[in-house]
Amino acid sequence: MSVWMPVAPCTPQACARHTGAVRSPIPALLRLLAGCAWTLLGVACAPPVRLLPAPARGWLVRRWARGVPRALGVRVTVRVHPYAPGSGGHPYAPGGELVVANHISWLDIPLVASVLPGRMLAKSEVGRWPLLGRLAGLGSTLFIDRDRLRALPGAVDTVAAALRAGSRVVAFPEGSTWCGRGSGGVFRPAVFQAAIDAEVSVRPVRITYGTAGAVAFVGDDPLAASLWRVVRAAGLTAEVHVLAPIPAGARAFVPASGEPGRRTLARAARAAVVGTDLTATARAAADQTAVASDSANRPAASVHHWARSSPAAASSSRTSS
After folding, report:
1. Contact present, 148 and 125 (Cβ < 8 Å)
2. Stretch among 30-39, 169-178, 182-191, 198-207 having the lowest mean pLDDT
């Protein structure tokens, strides 16, 4: 692992555990088999689905992604927050858009895809995961090599090109998973430069879990252990908050201070995700945090996968089980 990549203080021993009600092994195993079968169905259907028109493809991806947490026994609620005045557009309108979310678990990926499917930006290691890696590749994931700092400008250019081409790109700019019990990590600014270069909006998404310890996928936690922990935990819930977009045109985030616009944009997106306002005091504190963090850990764009979105019925809340 490169020393410049962001590292969360969360560890499996300290964070990834469930203390609530549990399923007995047999029902848990059935849940696990159902989740694997649903994932395999996605792998098998991905090639022909890619040939469909964008509206049909987007609808099928959303339906499949909703089935992943449902098969594993996770109840999901989606909340679309009111649009900011003048932000323009339908919350599910197709076209180039950078979606950014906090990062707690591998479950974040299907949760975002169930609402805003797009091309996921992911570390190259994801492509080697069993089943999920194959599916990510078929879903037009943008894989990046986080071990090489020199590869970062090229990764930004690749994301910008995808955005200009009209793709939705989904990123987890914290650069690492966090357990969900705190405010998480700083949003790394690199991927936001791609939004500025492509002059597309940034869509913040907030993900919360009722029992974060059961779903937390942190540190060197094996994927198999995380899957088993999820299916053993009874009554798991997740909420996906789709927030108002932030414009990221070339002139929108270049403050008088001369600070690079991507850092201001990254802080604004993070403030929306954690539910705070960037007052003058908070903005100054965020400045110090970002500068100090960049000195210790240079920007690393960590993020994950999918295709394009299509219009869907707007609603303020949707629950699935």
Report:
1. no
2. 182-191
